[in-house]
Amino acid sequence: MKFLKVLLASTLGSMIAIGVLFFFGFLFLLAFAAAGDAQPPIKTGSVLTLELAGGFPEKVSGDPLTQALMGESAFDVHGLVDALEAAATDSRIEGLWIRSSGLTESWATLEAVRRAIVSFAASDKPVFASSRNFFMTEAEYFLASAADSVFLDPQSIFEFNGFAMTSTFYADLLEKLDVEPMVVRAGDYKGAVEPYTRTSLSDQNREQLQAILDDIEAVFANRVAESRNMSVDDVMRLLNQDIMFSATEAFEAGLVDDLLYNDQVRALFGDDEDDDITLVPMSQWSNQVRSSTATNKIAVVHVSGTMMPGSSDAGGLLSTSVMSGSDTIVAALRTARDRRGVKALVVRIDSPGGMAPAADAMLREIQRTAEEMPVIISMGDVAASGGYWIATGGDHIVAESTTITGSIGVFSMFFDASELFEARLGITNDVVASGASADMFSGMRSWSDAERAMLERTTDTTYQAFLQHVATARNMSTEEAHALARGRVWTGSDAFAAGLVDEIGGMDIAIERAIEQAELDPDDVQVVRYPRSPTFFDQLSLTSAVSMNALSRLLGNDPGEATLVLQAKLQEFAAANGTVQARMTNEFEIR
After folding, report:
1. d(CA 43, CA 277)
2. How many angstroms separate the CA atoms of 404 and 495, rounded?
3. Which residues does 475 contact at the CB level (< 8 Å), separation at least 6?
4. CA 542 to chain centre
5. DSSP state of 128
6. pLDDT tens across 512-557, in order?
7. What is the tens place of the pLDDT at every residue in 348-391?
8. Which of 522, 543, 392 is nearest to 468 (CA)?
9. Nearest to residue 180, comparing CAs of 428, 416, 414, 447?
10. pLDDT higher for 55 or 404?
11. How far is CA 243 from CA 139, 159, 250, in A?
12. At 75, is the pLDDT very low, low, confident or very high (cuts 50, 70, 90)?
C-alpha cells in the first residue's frame, strides 16, 4: 500500500511538472511566433485606420506575449501621437479613417489625441470619422469633429445632451456594517473622504466639481465650434436645449456631414471596382515608426496610479489597480539621471496622489535631478494632491486644459470595525499594551480626544509642508498658496490662471521645453522612458496580489459590486495605516 501511495504521488508530480513545462513551452512558442510575425509592407495609397475603443494606455510594454494573451494595445497615447505625426509626412499614407466604439478615455488624453488628428488633417490628407457600433457619444464626437467629414449610419444613436459626473457614497453601507470612519483633514475642499462620511456632496465639493464640468463643456464647445464652423453659443444651445439622440437630428443640426453606411464611407477613399484601397490599422503602422538613435537623450519618467511605498504595481493578471511605488520611481529617476547622454528630464504624472511620505520621497529625487539638469513636468489626465506635490520639483509645469490638478490638501482616515467583529461576527479582542495609545491604529476602537488631537497636529504639519513646497516652487507666500489650496481641485486651465501651472499643452510641448532648456538640437534627440513596463511574465509573478473581486468570484461568493469596490478601497487605506494621505478622490467618471 505504501508503494502504491509513493507511485501515485510520483506519477501525479510528474504529470504536474510536465503540464507546467508544456504551459510555459506553449507561452514561449507563442511569444516567439508573435515577435517574429513579420508585418506586411506599407503600400502606396494606403489609408490609416484608427479604431477608438475603451481607453488609451499611458504606457505599454511592447511585449508580444502581453499583447497576444492580455490584449495590451500595440501603442500608448504618446506612441499614437508620434505615429500620426509620422503618417502626416509619409507619402504612402493618403488618408485617415477614425472609427469609434465605446470610447471611455479621460478628457486630457482626448485633448492630446485630438490635437494630433488636427495636425494630421493640416497635411491636406483627407480625414473621415464614423462610428463602429452605431452609437456616438460626446467624447467620441470630440475626436470625430476634428476630421474633415463626420459620417454616421442612418439609424445610429447620437448622444448630445451635455455632461454629468456621478459620485458614489458608502456611508450608509459602512453604517449597516457597523464600521465607523474616523477622519482628520486639512482643506475644506478635500473631498476624498466624503464617500465614506457622507451620502451626498458637500457644498464645497459640489462647487469644485461643477467648475470642472463647466470647464470641460467649454473646451468641448469651443473645439467643436471651431471645427464645424459654428458659433460657441450654437453648440451650447444644442447641448443644453435641443437635446439630440439620433443621427438624423445631428445631420440636420450640421454636426454630421452625411448619413452613410460603412461601405459608402470606404468608397469615399476610392474603394470601388477599379480602385481598391489598402486599409492599414494603427497597430500595424505604429510598429513601422522607429524611435530615434540620437546621442542626446530626454528621459521621461512615468508616475501613474496611486502613490505607495515599495515597488510599483501595474496591475498583475487578476488585479486592475495601478500603483506607483516610491522605490520604483526613485530608482527610475536615478537611472535616468545617471544614463549617459540624458540632458533633461520630463516627469509625466498621471496620478491622484496617495501616501504623503511616498510622494515626498519621489519629490526629493526629482529635486536632486533638477540640480543637474532641466526638469519639466507633464501632467496627464490627473496630477492632483500627491501628484501636484511631486510637480513642485520641476522647473516648468505643462498641463492640458482639462487635466485634473491641484487638490493641495491632506487627510488621515482610519476605520473602527470593532462593532462589525463583535456584534455581527462574534469576534472579540482584548489588548495588553505598554501605553494607552499603543493600539490606536488597531481598527478595534475609536480614538480618544488626545489621539485625535495628535492626528490633527500631524495632518496639519504635513499640510504646512505641502504649502511650503507649493509656495517655494510657485514664488508665492504660504498664505497665497493656502488661498489656492485647501484641497480644492482645479482644471488645467484654471490652474494656469491661478499660477499653479506654467503652460497649457501635452507631452510634446513638455519635451520641446526640455529640449529648449537643455539647449539641444531638436533633430538630434532621442526620448527614453522609465520605468520599464512589466511584460506578461512580470505580471505572472504578481498574481499573488489577486484582486478581491476576482478572488470572491473564484470562490463563488459575489457580495455585490458596491461591497467589492468598498472592500478594495478599504484594503488600500489599510495598507496606508498610520500615515497621512495626499490623495484626491478618484470618482471622476464624466459622461
Report:
1. 10
2. 9
3. none
4. 20
5. E
6. 999 999 999 999 999 999 997 665 555 555 544 434 444 343 344 4
7. 999 999 999 999 999 999 999 999 999 999 999 999 999 999 99
8. 392
9. 416
10. 404
11. 16, 8, 10
12. confident
DSSP-derived letter for residue 7 is H
**C-alpha distances in Å from residue 377, one per residue of 114, 150, 198, 305, 512:** 21, 35, 35, 16, 12
Distance, in Å, from the CA atom of 208 to the CA atom of 191, rounded to the nearest integer, reads 10
Q: Which residue of the set 59, 125, 190, 297 is catalytic?
A: 190
250 in Cβ contact with 232 (< 8 Å)? no
Distance CA 466, CA 460 (A): 10
- Of the chain, the end-to-end C-alpha distance in Å amounts to 67
Question: Quick one: which of 407, 458, 341 has its CA closest to 588?
Answer: 407
Say how far apart CA 401 and CA 579 lie, in whole Å.
Answer: 32
Sequence-ordered strand ranges (E) for 55-137: 93-103, 127-131, 135-136
Q: Which residue has the cell 468641448?
A: 220
Q: What is the pLDDT of residues 304-352, one digit of tens each?
A: 999 999 988 766 554 557 889 999 999 999 999 999 999 999 999 999 9
* DSSP state, residue 431: -
Is-catalytic flag, 2? no
For the packed helices 232-240 and 203-228, what is the interaxial angle rounded to 10 degrees? Answer: 120
HEC sequence for 319-382:
CCCCEEEHHHHHHHHHHHHHCCCEEEEEEEEEECEEEHHHHHHHHHHHHHHHCCCCEEEEEEEE
DSSP-based three-state secondary structure for 262: helix
Could you tell me what percentage of the chain is helix, strand and coil, using 3-state DSSP and rounding each to the nearest 5? 45, 20, 35
**What's this model's pTM, rounded to 2 decimal places?**
0.86
Q: Are strands 410-416 and 157-158 parallel, antiparallel or unpaired?
A: unpaired
Indicate the residue type of 260.
Answer: L
Residues 403/492, Cβ–Cβ less than 8 Å = yes
**DSSP-based three-state secondary structure for 485:** coil
Average confidence score pLDDT of the chain: 84
pLDDT score at 284: 86
Residue 193 CA to residue 477 CA, distance in Å, equals 28
Return the SS3 of 507: helix
Number of residues written out for the chain: 591
More confident residue, 144 or 535: 144
Distance (Å, whole) CA 179 – CA 423: 11
Residue 176 catalytic? no
For residue 495, the SS3 value is helix
Residue type, 411: F
DSSP track, 289-337 = -PPP--SEEEEEEEEESEEESSS-B--TTT----EEEHHHHHHHHHHHH
Q: Map out the domains of the chain with their CATH numbers.
A: 46-160+244-288 (3.90.226.10), 296-415+477-583 (3.90.226.10)
Name the active-site residue from 351, 385, 401, 493: 385
